[in-house]
UniProtKB/TrEMBL annotation:
Any one of the GO CC terms: nucleus
Primary location class: nucleus
Presence of the UniProt keyword Cell cycle in the record: no
Region annotated Disordered, chain positions: 90-127, 310-357
Subcellular location: Nucleus
Bias (Acidic residues): 310-342
Family per similarity comment: Belongs to the nucleosome assembly protein (NAP) family.
Keywords: Nucleus
Protein name: Nucleosome assembly protein 1-like 4a isoform X1
Biased composition (Basic and acidic residues): 107-127
Biological process annotations from GO: nucleosome assembly
SUPFAM superfamilies to which the protein is assigned, alphabetical: NAP-like
Coiled coil: none
Organism: Chanos chanos (Milkfish)
Length: 357
């Protein structure tokens, strides 16, 4: 018996050493005695049952999100009305004192009477309606979103009235929809632009133990009905062509993709049968991350992003990710040099993912 015990201990030590080596992790099961391997298989079946229960848990969480979204909505509607200027909040509703405001309260009270008197005397004093550029400022405050917003997008985003999240109805496949509500403008006829994110909450058949909760599996944008000459997702370039025989010169007008926030509503589409290349995978992963960020952070806490307070809690990028972003910026600068010869008009260089679309 002692010999057998020593032998088992030796095997256990070998297994532990093998497990500690990264290249041996996948061979762990093959090193186990047959009787132990059999029991491990039983544990795997239990683990699979746990994964299936976890999937049901997240389905119920989704139902709770949908339920509470209905409770939040009246507050979001009032936020929209205040932002747009449709409703003026009462003095009681505007009461808010931060620590710094309390420190400066005496000074504020001293200045208040003089300021109010000056406003009454000045007929030209401008009183802005609602909270101007609320959503534009909010989007600009977040790194991952500000990179999407181009200078030519800003006049359009000034017309953005509200952003809503709608969850799928009971019994329907799990999804959520981002709705961007715009006031009437001279750029497009749509009152609402939508982006639907389709999700699944079930273990993968091939790799069930990789399940960590609901994941976005696809997204669908919408068609933007641009007014003539107002589509900021494309830019027009002119190229001169010389006829070889006659020597005459003609000018050819061509449209090419343009960087724009509104490309967000025209996501990359891939076929489930076709393998994705690395660039496409990265583009979709970034799109899914942005969708989650709108749903979980921007819409619920918009005012805190507008003021910048929420940014203190958001470490969107670590140092390593910033380094990678800097490398991408350098690549884009190289592309710009090439495009300047091709496109004499002012405009931003086209990123790789935009050209693929």
């Amino acid at each position: 018996m002692e010999g057998k015990k020593a032998d088992v201990k030796g095997k256990s030590a070998d297994i532990i050493m093998q497990f500690n080596r990264p290249e041996g992790v996948h061979h762990m099961e093959s090193l186990l005695p047959k009787s132990v391997k059999r029991r491990v298989h039983a544990l795997k079946r239990l683990q699979l049952q746990c994964a299936n229960i976890e999937a049901k848990f997240y389905e119920e969480v989704h139902e709770l999100e949908r339920k509470y979204a209905a409770l939040y909505q009246p507050l979001y509607d009032k936020r929209r009305d205040v932002v747009s200027g449709a409703v003026e909040p009462t003095d009681e509703e505007c009461e808010w004192h931060s620590d710094r405001e309390e420190e400066d309260l005496a000074e504020e009270l001293k200045k208040k009477a003089a300021v109010e008197e000056k406003k009454e005397d000045s007929a030209t004093t401008e009183d802005p309606k609602g909270i101007p550029d609320f959503w534009l400022t909010t989007l600009r405050s977040v790194d991952m979103l500000s990179d999407m917003v181009q200078e030519h997008d800003e006049p359009i985003l000034k017309h953005l009235r509200d952003i809503k999240v709608k969850f799928s109805e009971p019994g329907q496949p799990m999804s959520f929809t981002l709705e961007f509500h715009f006031e009437t403008n001279s750029y497009f006829t749509n009152a609402v632009l939508t982006k639907v994110y389709k999700m699944k909450s079930e273990p993968d058949e091939v790799d069930p133990f990789s399940f960590e909760g609901p994941e976005i599996i696809d997204c669908e944008g919408c068609q933007i009905d641009w007014h003539k000459g107002k589509d900021v997702t494309v830019k027009t370039i002119k190229k001169k062509q010389k006829h070889k025989g006659r020597g005459t010169v003609r000018t050819v007008t061509k449209q090419i993709p343009n960087d724009s926030f509104f490309n967000f509503f025209n996501p990359v589409k891939v076929s489930p049968e076709d393998p994705m290349d690395e660039d496409t995978e990265l583009t979709l992963a970034a799109d899914f991350e942005i969708g989650h960020f709108f749903r979980e952070r921007i819409v619920p806490r918009a005012v805190l992003y507008f003021t910048g307070e929420a940014l203190e809690d958001d470490d969107s990028f670590d140092e390593e990710e910033l380094d990678e972003g800097e490398e991408e910026d350098n690549d884009e600068e190289g592309d710009e040099d090439e495009e300047e010869e091709y496109d004499p008009q002012k405009g931003e260089p086209q990123p790789a993912e935009c050209k693929q679309q």
